[in-house]
Design brief:
Layout (H helix, E strand, L loop, with lengths): L3 E7 H4 L6 H4 L3 H10 L4 E9 L2 E8 L6 H12 L10 E4 H12 L11 H15 L5 H20 L9 H5 L1
Antiparallel strand pairs: 1-3, 1-4, 2-3
Helix pairs in contact: 5-7, 6-7
């Protein structure tokens, strides 16, 4: 688990959705290729992009202490600079896994219990598999997150909540 991490830029970190545009405009698979060309020991890479967030889940081939810091630094060098004051969140190990579970369950969304995010995560999971970005660690992590989020959604009575920003708007 220590080799797994995620870099998160969401509406919470950005404060303004337009602050995320420099990163959202980049092709994530070109970013992955650049990370590999700069010597980052990536095993898996799953980019997740929605209207409210961009996240990069990754697994490394090493558990060296500075590997995550190096990943984050190189990723920051590759991607365009963000507006001043906008700082992405970088989580490792259990914190990254916990975040994915909360995200898949709709607990990290602008609207509590939003269901669309789970479908977007599944799309990202399948795309990563097609692009050869899925390794065993990330595959197991995402599969567990999908399974557990289904259990959380069934256990927590969210049936009367509006389940998307569009539903609230209407």
């Amino acid at each position: 688990m220590v080799q797994i991490g995620t870099v998160i830029l969401s509406f919470e970190e950005a404060g303004d959705l337009s602050s995320m545009l420099p990163w959202k405009s980049q092709d994530p698979w070109t970013v992955r290729a650049e990370l590999l060309s700069r010597g980052i020991p990536l095993r898996g890479f799953v980019p997740v992009s929605t209207c409210n967030r961009i996240e990069f889940y990754y697994s490394l081939a090493t558990s060296e202490d500075d590997a995550h810091s190096r990943f984050f630094q190189v990723l920051s060098d590759i991607l365009p600079p963000l507006l001043e004051g906008t700082r992405p969140l970088h989580l490792k190990g259990r914190e990254a896994a916990r975040h994915l579970l909360r995200l898949a369950s709709g607990l990290e969304s602008m609207v509590l219990g939003e269901t669309e995010i789970r479908a977007q995560l599944k799309d990202a999971f399948h795309e990563a598999h097609e692009m050869d970005g899925m390794d065993k660690r990330l595959r197991v992590l995402f599969q567990h997150a999908f399974q557990e989020s289904r259990g959380i959604r069934n256990a927590v009575p969210m049936g009367r909540l509006p389940l998307s920003v569009a539903a609230i708007a209407t």
